[in-house]
Task: inverse folding
């Protein structure tokens, strides 16, 4: 949002901070994308998923550990090969499916060759022994491979490499099922064991090799089944001394390897925590379990990966296109969770790993770009609203409220010494033109009139549209009736000339009223009232014409005072009544609330509309007791309706500026709620823009207190006042009500439509809902519904009705518009 100061437009600090944050996120996303740092995110996600939901497999592998206990009893490592021969002889009757030595036997025992012979004989007798081979890497490059010397290799059932892949972060997550010097002919140590245990299984799926010297093929991700300790481990010396039941090895894959302190190499895995790293023999046991149980994990094929990425990116782009700015962040979170969810689904359901980090980075970049675009569009929308708010959408003249602001500004600049006149012009029979030719013809008439007015006045004077077919002119530096009469006579003559509209010729009666400052009033509103009173007198005259406010008009004030006196007794005489106008959802026409509207049933004058006595009540302070009475009784009526079964019904009550400024407002609202025993969440207080802008800091404090009670707050007649959009977002407002002035011209005015759309867009960007009042035609209803105005109110659905009629309406569930 922006704040206009003079001719400069300043961006709000919040907007700048948000844009700066998005820019930083966007640049970080690009940095991650082009430096391949997203691979680290892939490993983090993989580790998290695997460690929190490890695969459940049958424990086919057991470990015979060369541990500290065995070293202490048998002696210093390496041991005589007779010891290993004795172990194999012990295991000969165990019916183990395979036995693997995760130990390198690359050199012969030259001092005791018989020991090698004994070991080879034991290997041959078991006929299921796998020995380890490894790449030779004396420095940084691998120069050959370490293979068991010939007598042992020849007697073994298979050879397998023990080369594990260590990622850049030091974690062991994968290995290649086949590797070898210049030719990937050796199966991995764990694969060789799995083949012996399950000879019917086929594990080779690809011939694609990696590397020039130590070549590898068919990578898999290691299927860790749980944390350290999940594999059965028996001490070498206990097995040798037959302290372990030999049946523990039946139909198992037995892996012999080092776990002793200082002798075994330990690796970091996704399950490593508190420095509990795994030995190589344990990792091989996990791999064996995974291979035998078909739980080994493969990366997704490129075509599958590309297809998933295409679908996710397409979904992200569709979300960016269709979702509003308010839902972008929740949408981004949902998309990220979707990417991770797809990875988890493939991992746990099909043992396939899809790397989601690239998608997440792309989604964040799309979010940043979309957010930038939405912010830019919102700025344009707000700029349109700033441009038009305070100006009439039909004639593009200032509104009455805007004119008052300009007069106040001129008075301040002159230090209060400015003499000026206010002229109010009424064009009669305007309604006849609308009814005969339609609203567009009426708008055309107003534009012709405004053009004629501007041709009659100097540029220093200012014309505004007041209401309907009425205009107001601020004549600066005009202090006498003689001066003003020159302008008024010219205006009367020019405006009284025929109007040619759609081949129809109209001669319309013109009524002009004028008042002078400070002669007739010291307050701006009183001065306007005086001019309007003079215009009303001119309107009542047979020949109409020009009327200047004078003492004779004060006779009307006597009648006005009588009305004041009657109003003082109206509450006591129970003449004040509450009518209710339903508020409905735009799509289903469901009644979800009502607005309480006051009427004065005068014993002589009959039913008096609020526009005729509320200004009097406000000026005399009577609005306080009347407003409190309305609030209390409307709450009691709502309670009765709730008890009658209409629990969903909400109540909207108008607060005048005087009420809002009352020091006991909070207490009065609390009393009304407690007295009726209803929830604060069922009440909405409607306030005007001028009410809030009178003292912004005080208004914010009062609004926050009402909001803290649970009361819903809305701005009534939005767009006709003079609130600045830079302040609007500071108010804890729930809903904005579009004024009937704009709604009534939706059928005929493009500017009215543009302003209405801008108000709806702005409200939604500020997380506010929107209701439109004064809906009277199906075209207005369709336009508002199609443009996401959530709720509607107006004669198209129901006129204001009494409490009894409202109950009948609710009981019959009549929610369709009136035909």
Result:
């Amino acid at each position: 949002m922006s704040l206009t100061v003079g001719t400069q437009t300043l961006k709000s600090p919040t907007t700048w901070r948000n844009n700066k944050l998005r820019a930083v996120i966007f640049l970080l996303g690009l940095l991650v994308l082009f430096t391949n740092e997203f691979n680290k995110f892939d490993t983090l996600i993989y580790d998290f998923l695997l460690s929190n939901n490890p695969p459940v497999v049958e424990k086919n592998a057991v470990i015979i550990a060369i541990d500290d206990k065995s070293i202490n009893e048998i002696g210093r490592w390496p041991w005589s090969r007779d010891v290993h021969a004795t172990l194999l002889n012990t295991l000969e009757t165990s019916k183990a499916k395979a036995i693997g030595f995760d130990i390198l036997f690359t050199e012969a025992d030259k001092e005791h060759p018989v020991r090698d012979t004994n070991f080879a004989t034991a290997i041959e007798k078991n006929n299921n022994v796998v020995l380890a081979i490894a790449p030779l890497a004396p420095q940084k490059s691998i120069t050959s491979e370490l293979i068991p010397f010939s007598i042992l290799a020849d007697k073994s059932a298979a050879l397998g490499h023990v080369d594990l892949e260590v990622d850049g972060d030091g974690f062991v997550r994968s290995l290649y099922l086949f590797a070898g010097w210049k030719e990937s002919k050796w199966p991995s140590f764990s694969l060789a064991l799995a083949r012996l245990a399950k000879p019917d299984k086929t594990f080779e799926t690809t011939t694609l090799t990696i590397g020039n010297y130590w070549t590898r093929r068919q990578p898999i991700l290691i299927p860790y089944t749980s944390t350290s300790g999940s594999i059965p481990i028996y001490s070498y010396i206990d097995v040798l001394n037959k302290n372990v039941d030999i049946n523990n090895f039946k139909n198992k894959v037995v892996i012999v390897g080092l776990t002793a302190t200082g002798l075994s190499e330990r690796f970091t895995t996704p399950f490593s925590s508190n420095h509990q790293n795994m030995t190589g023999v344990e990792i091989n046991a996990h791999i064996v379990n995974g291979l035998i149980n078909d739980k080994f994990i493969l990366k997704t094929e490129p075509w599958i990966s590309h297809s998933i990425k295409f679908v996710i990116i397409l979904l992200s782009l569709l979300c960016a296109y269709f979702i509003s700015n308010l839902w972008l962040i929740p949408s981004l979170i949902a998309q990220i969770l979707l990417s991770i969810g797809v990875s988890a689904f493939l991992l746990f359901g099909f043992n396939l790993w899809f790397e989601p980090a690239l998608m997440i980075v792309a989604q964040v970049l799309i979010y940043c770009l979309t957010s930038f675009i939405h912010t830019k569009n919102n700025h344009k929308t707000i700029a349109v609203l700033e441009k038009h708010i305070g100006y009439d959408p039909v004639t593009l003249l200032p509104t009455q409220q805007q004119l008052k602001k300009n007069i106040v500004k001129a008075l301040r600049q002159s230090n209060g010494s400015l003499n000026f006149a206010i002229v109010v012009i009424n064009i009669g029979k305007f309604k006849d033109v609308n009814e005969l030719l339609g609203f567009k013809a009426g708008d055309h008439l107003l534009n012709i009139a405004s053009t004629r007015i501007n041709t009659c006045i100097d540029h220093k004077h200012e014309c505004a549209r007041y209401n309907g077919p009425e205009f107001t002119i601020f004549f600066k530096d005009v202090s006498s009736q003689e001066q003003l009469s020159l302008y008024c006579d010219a205006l009367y003559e020019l405006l009284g000339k025929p109007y040619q509209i759609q081949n129809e010729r109209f001669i319309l009666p013109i009524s002009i009223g004028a008042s002078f400052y400070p002669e007739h009033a010291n307050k701006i509103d009183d001065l306007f009232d005086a001019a309007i009173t003079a215009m009303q007198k001119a309107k009542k005259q047979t020949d109409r014409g020009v009327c200047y406010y004078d003492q004779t008009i004060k006779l009307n004030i006597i009648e006005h005072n009588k009305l004041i006196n009657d109003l003082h007794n109206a509450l006591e005489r129970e003449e004040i009544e509450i009518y209710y106008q339903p508020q409905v959802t735009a799509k289903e026409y469901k009644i979800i609330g009502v607005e309480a509207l006051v009427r004065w049933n005068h014993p002589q004058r009959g039913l008096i509309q609020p526009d005729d006595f509320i200004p009097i009540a406000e000026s005399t302070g009577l609005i306080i007791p009347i407003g409190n009475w309305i609030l209390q009784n409307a709450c009691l009526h709502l309670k009765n309706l709730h008890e009658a079964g209409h629990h969903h019904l909400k109540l909207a009550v108008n607060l005048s500026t005087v009420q809002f400024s009352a020091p006991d407002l909070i207490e009065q609202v609390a009393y009304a709620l407690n007295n009726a025993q209803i929830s604060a969440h069922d009440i909405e207080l409607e306030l005007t823009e001028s009410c809030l802008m009178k003292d912004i800091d005080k208004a914010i404090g009062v609004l926050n207190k009402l909001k803290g009670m649970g009361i819903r707050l809305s701005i009534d007649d939005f767009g006709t006042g003079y609130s600045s959009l830079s302040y609007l977002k500071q108010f804890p407002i729930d809903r904005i009500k579009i004024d009937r002035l704009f709604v009534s011209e939706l059928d005929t005015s493009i500017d009215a439509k543009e302003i209405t759309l801008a108000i709806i867009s702005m409200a939604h960007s500020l997380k506010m809902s929107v209701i439109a009042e004064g809906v009277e035609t199906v075209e207005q209803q369709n336009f508002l519904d199609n443009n996401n105005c959530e709720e509607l109110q107006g004669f198209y659905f129901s006129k204001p009705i009494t409490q009894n009629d409202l109950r009948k309406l609710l009981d019959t569930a009549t929610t369709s518009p009136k035909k």
Remarks:
- The longest strand covers residues 591-602.
- The CA atoms of residues 251 and 432 lie 102 Å apart.
- Confidence is low (pLDDT under 50) at residues 1-17.
- DSSP finds 29 helices and 34 strands in the chain.
